[in-house]
Amino acid sequence: MSEPTTTSSLSPASRTPLLDRVNSPEDLKTLARDQLTLLAEELRGEIVRVCSVGGLHLASSLGATDLIVALHYVLNSPRDRILFDVGHQAYAHKMLTGRRSRMSSVKKEGGLSGFTKVSESEHDAITVGHASTSLANALGMALARDSLGQDHKVAAVIGDGSLTGGMALAALNTIGDMGRKMLIVLNDNEMSISENVGALNKFMRGLQVQKWFQEGEGAGKKAVQAVSKPLADFMSRAKSSTRHFFDPASVNPFAAMGVRYVGPVDGHNVQELVWLIERLVDLDGPTILHVVTKKGKGLSYAEADPIYWHGPGKFDPATGEFKPSDAYSWSAAFGDAVTELARQDPRTFVITPAMREGSGLVKYSQVHPHRYLDVGIAEDVAVTTAAGMALQGMRPIVAIYSTFLQRAYDQVLHDVAIENLNVTFAIDRGGIVGADGATHNGVFDLSYLRSIPNVRVGLPKDAAELRGMLRAAQESPGPFALRYPRGNTERVPEGTWPDLRWGTWERLREGDDVVILAGGKALEYALRASADLPGVGVVNARFVKPLDEALLREVASRARALITVEDNTVVGGFGSAVLEALSAMGLRTPVRVLGIPDEFQDHATVESVHARAGIDAQAIRTVLAELGVNVPIEV
Prior knowledge:
Layout: H1 25-28, H2 36-51, H3 59-74, E1 81-84, H4 91-99, H5 134-147, E2 154-159, H6 166-178, E3 182-188, H7 199-207, H8 218-227, H9 229-234, H10 253-256, E4 260-266, H11 270-280, E5 286-292, H12 300-304, H13 330-344, E6 348-352, H14 362-367, E7 372-374, H15 379-391, E8 395-401, H16 402-405, H17 409-417, E9 424-428, H18 445-450, E10 456-458, H19 463-474, E11 480-483, E12 506-509, E13 514-518, H20 521-529, E14 536-540, E15 543-545, H21 549-558, E16 561-569, H22 574-585, E17 591-596, H23 606-613, H24 617-626
Parallel strand pairs: 1-2, 2-3, 3-5, 4-5, 6-7, 6-8, 8-9, 9-11, 10-11, 13-14, 13-16, 16-17
Antiparallel strand pairs: 10-15, 12-14
Helix pairs in contact: 2-3, 3-4, 3-11, 5-6, 13-19, 15-17, 20-24, 21-22
């Protein structure tokens, strides 16, 4: 690769004399205002160095650095509450609140979270990882403050991507109705992970090219003038390079909701941001400050491709050079399969909630642009839109992460399952995901999906089986869910479509002493654990609903004991389904259920969490030994 240039002096060797003086928000306030721009540059250099190890959130953190400096310079955290939506953009916040020395531990076992986390620091107002939650949290904090007679400030930072979420818009509507004092900073970088979509996004883009009125009008302007006439005058300078307006009389959805609007302003002018925030936080009622930022600010290669540099792999911070991976991910396997399937069936239509890249849909969106829809961060809308399409004869596929499908449980049940509609759910990141931790682990889907009538659930062991399940689902009536893990699998040739009957298991290893039942990621551990144990059988229990009751009855009748293994909570998951089925059959074969314990799993490698949870190969061998199998301790 050629060596890209930087748009500022960022390198791992950059000196940080100002940042070295700042270990808390109080230290930050000892700096002169004209030093803040340089401090933000030093912070960006540190962020680049920290993120160069790979797997961390780079572009979003670079874009929000100036804003975070300004907020902490004006507000008094932790007394004043500063909330970050999603939290992945808050690396500068972590550094300014005493965690700089631990930044190399971000997303590592025992280290800092990749997001804000209440139990990690008193400066983290909310524990977060999913989008669009900050405004409802901020409203709750403002209501609690006023109810308790307190007077601290509440400020929420939300990106324009998160603002596409229905939860954020509903909260904004209530915020305007309640009228409580708070500052909402709209961090507008035109991005979430994929490009932002939707009517509101188009409106935000339109604001940046609109010819502003020369003066603000109405009650909103009067409210500002009551606090600061210079502020009101400042916001009417419509012909300045960074344009400001305060215009509830214009076509402005925020003003229509009863929320004062200020902006757009330059989100990288720290001193201007400080000047504005100082004044806006004292206004009565809710105020939105619309700041325009550049995702990847300060690095030419990150600014040019903020999607890749949202969470890049390991790279050289001085040059941006990185070694492309030739691994074939489960996401890519799904993307290739659905792209090919859509060529064969014109009824196929893919819907995703803002996860085109993550769900492997870039190629599909290019090959089939008229049968692709990104609804933004609105998982409920994705599912119910699919229901509407199914009612009209289409075969929609909702491509979604397991953790995000949790946000659409009611729509799966109410809008899809009750009428047994033909909707397929391609569920990525099923099971433990590793570094993103508790907010992103997909360990509840087997439990909540198998509780819904009509929904069938499959766990492919490889890309070929994924293709067979996908095709079988698309050719059969009713809702289906295909759940696959984060990670890689083996490529299969185009045109590979195994004939797979839904609800059938397969024996992969003969043995009737103890039989291990496992599917998906857990199947790998089962095969490894039993590799040198001739009396131990392994069944690819690739369908969690319906179970293959005929094969289950057969192995349970012969085996001395069964072991179920799943990358899912033990509460109500695959093991529970097996126990329920055996009870209905009147069989009393002993069953050991291995799965994720009934507690949230913190960030670490997938392998480490699986070992800790007791579902890896060594844990299975330990259980086999406890059941009387002659097995060495080591795998």
